[in-house]
């Protein structure tokens, strides 16, 4: 299985590491022609969503990515990647806007900017969750299904073949969220 990872900024290498450990192939997406490569899934990593949005615009990647996702390419967005997918962004601008959620950027304030916890993820069980200046999902606007909450806040949603997490599964040794994504991309879910 081949997965493209948006590699303009942020935690793309960590996602590549998780996928490789699961035996999936991956390649980096840095320019428009990379979108022509065959892929069965796409990852939008964590990082800084404002910087990624700007680079996507400057490099002409925005409409191609939006189109691929709209056409049904399975996608996993983590943290900033979730913000890029969200239709509504409080404290920022919408980018791809393919997923019917409203997110709040930097939602946990300074004190709780970064933290680690363990919560239930539907279909997987209890998993470690690392949050870094994370958003949370304030509301599901469309048909999305809530897969996880932490401290009462929605932190993972799946809408069709779009999966988004406010935390960073690529920063833990636990590979179950990536496995879930590969199953989803391969049509098992
Ligand atoms: N705070 C970042 C943003 O708004 C997201 C943080 C992250 O991806 N770890 O884009």
Biggest sheet features: 7 strands, mixed
Our measurement of the CA-to-CA distance between the termini, rounded to an integer number of angstroms, reads 15 Å
CATH class (first level) name: Alpha Beta
Domains, number: 1
Which architecture name does CATH use?
Answer: 3-Layer(aba) Sandwich
Lay out the secondary structure.
Layout: E1 2-6, H1 12-21, E2 25-29, E3 41-44, H2 49-58, H3 62-70, E4 75-78, H4 80-85, E5 86-90, E6 99-104, E7 114-121, E8 125-132, E9 136-140, E10 145-150, E11 153-159, E12 162-165, H5 176-185
Parallel strand pairs: 1-2, 1-3, 3-4, 4-12, 5-6
Antiparallel strand pairs: 6-9, 7-8, 10-11, 11-12
Glutamine binds at residues 46-49, 79-80, 83, 105-106, 132-134.
Question: Top keywords for this entry?
Answer:
Rossmann fold, 189 residues, seven-stranded mixed β-sheet, alpha/beta, binds glutamine, 5 helices, three-stranded mixed β-sheet
Explain this structure.
- With 189 residues, the protein is of the alpha/beta class.
- The chain has one domain (2-185): Class I glutamine amidotransferase (GATase) domain (Rossmann fold, 3-Layer(aba) Sandwich), CATH 3.40.50.
- It has helices at residues 12-21, 49-58, 62-70, 80-85, 176-185, and strands spanning 2-6, 25-29, 41-44, 75-78, 86-90, 99-104, 114-121, 125-132, 136-140, 145-150, 153-159, 162-165.
- The model has no long low-confidence stretch (mean pLDDT 96).
- Residues 46-49, 79-80, 83, 105-106, 132-134 line the site of glutamine.
